[in-house]
Amino acid sequence: MSDTIIIGAGHNGLVTAFYLAKAGRKPLVLERRPVVGGCATTEEFAPGFRSSTLAHTLGPLRPAIVRDMQLERRGVTFVRPDPRLVSLGTDGRALVFSTDPGRTAEAIRPFSAKDAAKYPEFCATLERVGAFLGDLVGMTPPSIDAPSPGELWDLLKTGRKFRSLGKKESFALLRWGPMAVADLVAEWFETDLLQATLAARAIHGTAMGPWSAGTGAVLLLAAAIDPVPGGSSVSAVGGAGAVTQAMADAAREAGAEIRTGADVQRILVQDGAVTGVELADGTRLPADVVVSGADPRRTFLGLIDPIELEPGFITRVRNYRCPGTVAKLNFALSALPSFRGLSSDIAASLHGRVHVGPGIDYLERAFDASKYGETSSSPYLDITFPSVPDPTMAPAGKHVMSVHMQYAPYALRAGQWEYEKSVLANIVLRTLDSHAPGITSLVEHRQVLSPRDLEEQFGLTGGHIHHGELALDQLFTMRPVLGWADYRTPIDGLYLCGSGTHPGNGLTGGSGQNAAREVLKGVRVRRRA
Ligand SMILES: Cc1cc2nc3c(=O)[nH]c(=O)nc-3n(C[C@H](O)[C@H](O)[C@H](O)COP(=O)(O)OP(=O)(O)OC[C@H]3O[C@@H](n4cnc5c(N)ncnc54)[C@H](O)[C@@H]3O)c2cc1C
After folding, report:
1. pLDDT at residue 169 tops 90
2. What is the CA(438)–ligand 1 centre distance, in A?
C-alpha cells in the first residue's frame, strides 16, 4: 500500500518517485496519459517515422540523476554531438558551434576576427558564472521571511563562493541578470548572426524577445546547466521517450508503482492537510503525502477546492504567468535536405541542433507578432534530425525533422488553432526553403502541435513548455510564488515537483530531485512531531 502519491509521470515526477522509493517510501505515480514521460516521450507520428513528440534535446540531465538511476545500464545511449549547433545565415553562410571554444572561434573568424578573438573569453566568463549558479540551481530556495539555520548556512557558503568569483565575474553576474540579452551579447560581439544565436537561449520557450529586460537571467540559468554558449544538444538514441522509459524502470525497481490512464480529478484535503486524491472515475486513494508534478496553476486552481486556500495565495497563483509561445512540428522526410552553407557531408553537421533566427531584429520581430496574438511570419526555429544519430527513427534512407517553432501565441487574435495549424506548417517550410531549397518537396507527412494542443493533450496550462514563464520575477525564491519556493505548499503534506518550481529549466530532473529532498525532510519533521 502506498504512502505517497505523485501526480504525473513526467520526468520530474519519475525522478521524485525514484528518490522517495530509494529512501524507503512507497510512492504511487498516477499519470493521466496512456504513456509515461509527459513532455519527454517518443511516439510514431507517421508509419515508420518516430520522433521525440515535444522536447527534442535534454537539458542536459543532472549527472547525479543519470548515475543514481543507472540510465546507461538500462540501455540509454546519450548522443553528445560535436558540432553541437549550426546557425544558418541569410547570406548562405553557416556558423558552426563546437564544444571546444578554439574550434568555434575559428568558425567565427571569417565573419569577424574581432569576435573570434573575444569568443574564448566569453566562454570562460560564462563557465565561471555558470559554475557558481550551478550551486544555486541545486539548492532549495531559502525562505525570505525566516530562513532556517540550514538555509543561513547555505547562503553563507554561497556568499563565500560569490566573493571567490573575482571582481569581473561577480560584476558580470549582478549586471547581466536584469539586462536584455540583446544588449548583453552586443557588449561582446559585432556579428548579428553570432549575437542572435547566443541570445536565442535566453528566449527559448518564453514570451519574451531579445530586447525584453531580464532575458539575461534566462541566459544565466541556462549557463548554470551547460555553460557552452550555444546550449545543450544532448539527445538520446530512441528520443526523449527512451530516457523516461528508463527512468520509469528505475523508479519501479526502487519500489515505486506507476499507473497510466489515471487522471487525478481532485486533491483531497481535511483540516488543512492532504488526505489523498480522487480519480476521474471516482476512485479515492488515501495518502498522507501528495506530490504534484502538474504545473502550479493546474495544481492549485484545478485540483484543489478553493476553500482550502487563502484568497491571497489564490490571487498570486492566478498572477503566475503561463503564456505559451511554442508550436512543435515533426516532419517525415523522404531524404535529408541540403542546407546552404554546410559542407558536402551534410549528415555530419546535423547530429546536433540547427538554429534559424539570423539576427537580433529578426528574433525581436518574430516575438512582436505574438504580442498581438499573431503567429510570426518569419519565425525562430530550433531544429533537430533525430534520424541522423539514430537511423531507426525513420524507414531506411528517410529522415525525421523535429522543429521547435517560436512564436505561436496560445491566444490567437483572429482564427482558431484548429485551422491555423496548416498555415503555421507552411510558414515553417517557407522559412526553411530559403536555407534548404526544395525542402517542401521532401515532406511525406507532418504533425503539428499548437500551444492549445500542448494544453489539451499534455496538460500544460496556457501551453507553456516550462510550466510557467522563466522570467526574473518567477525564478528561484519566486518560483512559483514568493514564500512557497521550497516545494512545500500551504496545504500540509502537499508538495510540488514539476517544472513550475525552481530551477524548472527543461529536462534536467532538477525540480524532481530537489523536491524529493524536501519531501523526505518534511516526513522526518512530521515523524519527530
Ligand atoms: C514543445 C516542447 C519542446 C520542448 N523542448 C525542450 C528541449 O528541447 N529541451 C529541454 O530540455 N526541454 C524542452 N522542453 C521542456 C521540457 O520538456 C519540460 O520542461 C519538462 O519535460 C517538464 O517535465 P515535468 O516532469 O516537470 O512535467 P511534464 O513533462 O509536463 O509532466 C507532467 C505530467 O503530469 C501529468 N498530469 C498533469 N495533470 C495530471 C492529473 N490531473 N492527473 C494525472 N497526471 C497529470 C501530465 O500528463 C504529464 O505527464 C520542451 C517542452 C515542450 C512542450
Report:
1. no
2. 34
**Cα separation of 432 and 88, whole Å?**
10
Nearest CA to ligand 1 atom 49: 38
Residue pair 207/321 in contact by the 8 Å Cβ criterion: yes
The per-residue pLDDT for range 331-380, each reduced to its tens digit, is 999 999 999 998 778 788 899 999 999 999 999 999 999 999 999 999 99
- Reported as a single tens digit per residue, the pLDDT across 281-307 is 999 999 999 999 999 999 999 999 999
Strands 85-88 and 353-356: parallel
Best mutation site among 39, 137, 247, 453 for ligand 1 pocket (most ligand atoms within 8 Å of CB): 39
Are the CB atoms for 355 and 85 separated by under 8 Å?
Answer: yes
Question: Residue 355 half-sphere exposure, CB side, CA atoms within 13 Å?
Answer: 32
Single-letter amino acid, residue 329: L
Nearest by Cα to 481 from 309, 224, 225: 309
pLDDT tier for residue 156 given thresholds of 50, 70 and 90: confident
Using DSSP's 3-state secondary structure scheme, residue 257 falls into: strand
Neighbours of 334 (CB within 10 A): 13
C-alpha–C-alpha distance, residues 391 and 351, integer Å: 11
Alpha helix stretches (DSSP H) within 139-207: 149-164, 167-176, 181-188, 192-200
Our answer on whether the CB atom of 328 is closer than 6 Å to any ligand 1 atom is: yes
Please give the single-letter amino acid code of residue 229.
P
